[in-house]
């Protein structure tokens, strides 16, 4: 007996010793030392500051958000056990965190909600959060929210009746006080159930199992949060009495939500939902069922969401949509009750609201009448009549053909460059609101537009890029475009491009190493190569355009994040109502403010580089003050430096103009090349026999050597070039370009009036079977010399053509050859068609893979 007792004592002492040593080591770690440099209350071993907190929840909040803020400042740290929290309460600090695109993941404190809400919007992070946020955002458009006012009003009436009923006692006398919070919670639960799931649970009028479960699960979660079980893993917590109750209630809640989802699915499948679910849209937004039904319709349209994903989103709406609103309302009522003067002012405003509403209705009627008359006049204008003589889909008032377009970007392209071409021909017109587009996809028409010296102005759609790129080569017109084009053309002479091969090769090696590292990770069979390609091409164009190394492939910097984020914002604006807003109005929106803020940082970075390069050139000229060395400088730095040297020689270019050109190179030089490369790899991964032929050619040129690719090598890689061109035919990096029609002219027997936009549909042009038989099949031999004879020169225009063709096309082709050859010398590449199906292409600013590009990369080394 004594032996067992002493053994137990010894075991406890050993455990305490291990705990002490572990705690001592942890205390001396760099992580803890870094955190403890931030001011905050003194922590105790094991417990941190937990013992310094009061027992009552209201007192805990007053300590954390009051006493300690006064004592340690607007940024301080505290410890809860082994968990540190850095507390901030200054708008400047908050802006940095809440506006960040990096710190979007919720902290581990939220994990106790995960069994209930799963990976719903509240707890999701990364790509899942972005995808679901983008999917659900249209559900909160004001035109859709307007349809929920009957739900708000109906439940508000029931709430008032229930409160009036509760205020009368059994004896028919008015009670002095009522606890309104339970009534508010039931009311907001009724509203969110109808809004999120499309069902009525009548929580205000009757008691149900679901109502009791929602209230009880909320209580259990709060109890767990403020107890030691917060630190237990879920599997251990579920062995405790509260944990077992938690699991049991969750099963019922999830079962209820899943049952509703299945019923709504059946109703959608059978077309039994009220109204026209498949019909009337408002610019692509579903009018009637905005939450659950929107998700189900998206799934029906091809969005990948499992039943569990859908359930998580619905449960998240339920959690976030009733308790938070009830809390906000109860404190509003408290503030009104304790401030009768303000309550009276609100009541006066409500009395005036009827008169204001009547006035607004009258104004609205006048505006509708004016809009109708203006629209009728516009409809009868010669411009509209001339355009409508061109065949095309039937337009609707105000929205044009916007409501005829699908919601998904890949489906929009298939409609514009596929379905409507089959229906209306190789020249047709469409309307996007009041904007008209004449679409062409035959080489004869394309040649007439692209070789014109008159129609060199880009279409109005490009105007959303103006705040970023200004009047750089992409957007400039007239004399400015001619001057800058003439100035920059020498930068792309092959003798200068030869000097960039070390940049191409160095970054190709890093790309291969990064992909090999990603592919070798445990459990990884496929790697989405697109993000890697974007970082690689960004590294290359930064060094080529600005002469600086940003190491995008190896580290994350603010400039990299800004370039990626500004591209996302521009695309989001392009496919939203923000596209139609003038810049000053767009910058008043939340996205517009973010856009403006990021642009300021990007422009600041570019301007700083320009100033530094100016100083460096001045130093180089002092050190190398002879003609031969001056030529070397020009050769070595061909883009930014060429402009700076031209300014020194008397060419009039302001710093803003130089910045615009550099930003244009950055925009056009990384996303387009990454797009071209990712589709090339897709074609290689789905056409292994052609991949082997390319590899044979690489072996002929390089043998067993692992040496870098030279310009002479690149010129020998003829079959690789054919494969790159064929992938560009099938998947042009820029699927369409537009031109502004500045004067009336005739095309294909139709008059195109001044003010129209002419859209060259490159994707459809490249799949014209009159010039490319079997247009959907990958056949690189189409671009061999004997096969190309007799083909119309404008049947293949991946880099545009004519005077406004891509100035950097030779640079891009050499870059693609070097990167492609490096990848194919290092890896055998395959794409699992059986698993993923054909990759879908999103036509945004460039042609991107809709769901990334998962490739299997088998290293030869």
UniProtKB/TrEMBL annotation:
SUPFAM superfamilies the record matches: Cytochrome P450
Record family assignment: Belongs to the cytochrome P450 family.
Pfam families: p450
Main location: endoplasmic reticulum
TM ranges: 355-375
Keyword set includes Cell membrane: no
Signal sequence extent: 1-22
Compartment list: Endoplasmic reticulum membrane; Microsome membrane
Organism name: Daphnia magna
GO molecular function, one term: heme binding
Function: May be involved in the metabolism of insect hormones and in the breakdown of synthetic insecticides.
Keywords, alphabetical: Endoplasmic reticulum, Heme, Iron, Membrane, Metal-binding, Microsome, Monooxygenase, Oxidoreductase, Signal, Transmembrane, Transmembrane helix
Protein name, entry field: Cholesterol 24-hydroxylase
Topological category with respect to the lipid bilayer: Peripheral membrane protein
GO cellular component, one term: endoplasmic reticulum membrane
Cofactor: heme
Residue positions binding heme: 806
